[in-house]
Amino acid sequence: MTRKELALRIAKYGIQRRLLRWIFGNPVIAITMMRRDQTAGLFVPVELLLAEDDDATTCSVTYVVPSTLIAIGDDAELLAAAKALDAKVEALIASCVGRTSESSS
After folding, report:
1. What is the pLDDT of residue 31?
2. Measuring CA to CA, which residue among 34, 44, 50 is closest to residue 69?
3. How far apart are CA 36 and CA 32, in angstroms?
């Protein structure tokens, strides 16, 4: 997992907010998808932005649902792998904020 502290970079431009960009993934999942379509490599690993809200007591999580970028053709196997990745990302986020995937809907 790679972590980039964006807040350090944007502070010099007057933006006082804590931001954290995570780039994470599993190479086995990426290779599985890239065997079906090499352009999937543009979107795995997944990127996520954790941003402090204006009140500085809460934060938001922003990411693009992987399957919306990866499975744009008619490849059912690729779509299934991308949907499985969607579920894994949602489960990770849900576990970080202390809720189950079912309660996030």
Report:
1. 92
2. 44
3. 7
Question: What is the total count of domains within the chain?
Answer: 1
pTM summary value: 0.76
CA distance 67 to 56: 32
- What residues make up the domain containing 19? 2-97
Task: Answer yes or no: are the C-beta atoms of 24 and 45 closer than 8 Å.
Answer: yes
105 in a structural domain:
no
**Is the four-CA dihedral 5, 11, 13, 19 of positive or negative sign?**
positive
**33: Cβ contacts below 8 Å, ≥ 6 apart:** 40, 44, 70, 78, 81, 82, 85
Q: Which of the residues in the chain have pLDDT under 70? A: 1-9, 99-105
Residue with tokens 């993934």: 25
